[in-house]
């Protein structure tokens, strides 16, 4: 039998739980003239939610991750590559006649994917303008193109001033729905909420939370092959109190527990065994990470592992702790839901076992 828990890939259908209101919100936004900005820490389920909502509209969509853009040229060619994937060349060729720089388009015989490249140019923003203009032109009123830019905060790192240029292009477009995703909360809020930012109030801001306790409890309970009700209840509670309802890690731990119950017939102590197994698997990575942290970072992580607010640690100046927390949040090791917490519960467990 296939493991009923999935992690590390987009989830849909029977692997997708809750998010009813969020799904509705995304769908409403896609049916309007507004754009959507969706923020959450990594692996909370942004992509899965968006993919599900988009699928339900039946509309075409291109999705690009800003983290993968090497330059503005690269950004423009990736937009075109996606458009060529979606629309047959014969249908859009005539829309490209006004392109100021004509791209070279070829099919890679090894990957069978389309490659798009440009001659080197002085002002690469024209490439982006033309590419984005093409998105607008191929989009149809009754089947508007949806454009997803993931890890959107990375535009600030592609080239200085690109945010302003991008905004002025997007401002003139009327036939597209943009969805901008980001996992760096502070940078994303800065981009969309700071009055002086070009993207100030660009669209509807939505924060994705963890999955509610009752939903996850039900989701796991019906999938674990444990007949004794009491034991099942305890196992599920143990899983959720360890993962703090984090969508990805909850699925990961549940998958491991399911495997141990199904193949090793282990029920008593199964959650502890599953945690140990996952921690052991990542031992080397965790150690490498740990060695790269400075003393302040380590002390913050140790405080958090013990359930202590690092800002109340008297041995470290508050300002030092604060900038340390900010740094750790930017790198994704610490997230803030209600309080600060270590993003990966298995890393936290590793710290508790080996560093305290
Ligand atoms: N609605 C859901 N129900 C159950 N599990 C979910 C749900 N959404 C996400 N997950 C779990 O979280 C994992 C990560 O989801 P997803 O890739 O959609 O998140 P993300 O926020 O886009 O992540 P990233 O930051 O890596 O882009 C999934 O593989 C799945 O295990
Ligand atoms: Mg994603």
Write up what this structure looks like.
This protein has 356 residues and is α/β, with parallel strands linked by helices. Helices cover 50% and strands 11% of the residues. It has 16 helices and 9 strands. A 5-stranded parallel sheet has the order 2-5-6-1-7, sandwiched between helices. A two-stranded antiparallel sheet has the order 3-4. It has a two-stranded antiparallel sheet with strand order 8-9. A hairpin with a 3-residue loop joins β8 (334-336) and β9 (340-342). α1 packs across α2, α10 (229-243) packs antiparallel against α11 and α11 (247-264) crosses α12. The mean pLDDT is 94. Bound molecules: adenosine-5'-triphosphate and magnesium ion (MG). Magnesium ion (MG) binds next to α2.
Produce a short descriptive summary.
With 356 residues, the protein is α/β, with parallel strands linked by helices. Helix content is 50%, strand content 11%.
What is the topological layout?
Blueprint lengths: L19 H11 L5 E4 L6 H12 L3 E5 L6 H15 L2 H4 L11 E4 L6 E4 L7 H14 L6 E6 L4 H4 L3 H10 L4 E7 L2 H9 L10 E4 L5 H9 L7 H15 L3 H18 L5 H12 L1 H10 L2 H11 L12 H13 L3 E3 L3 E3 L2 H10 L2
Parallel strand pairs: 1-6, 1-7, 2-5, 5-6
Antiparallel strand pairs: 3-4, 8-9
The chain binds adenosine-5'-triphosphate and magnesium ion.
Euclidean distance between termini CA atoms: 40 Å
Which class of secondary structure composition applies to the elements? alpha/beta
Main sheet: strands, sense, barrel = 5 strands, parallel
Which stretches are poorly predicted, pLDDT < 50 over at least 5 residues? none
Whole-number average pLDDT?
Answer: 94
Coarse morphology: globular
What compounds sit in this structure?
Answer: adenosine-5'-triphosphate, magnesium ion
Main sheet: strand order: 2-5-6-1-7
User: What's the order of the H and E elements?
Assistant: HEHEHHEEHEHHEHEHHHHHHHEEH
Helix content: 40-55%
The radius of gyration is 23 Å
Using DSSP, what is the number of strands? 9
Indicate the proportion of strand residues: 5-15%
Number of helices in the DSSP assignment = 16
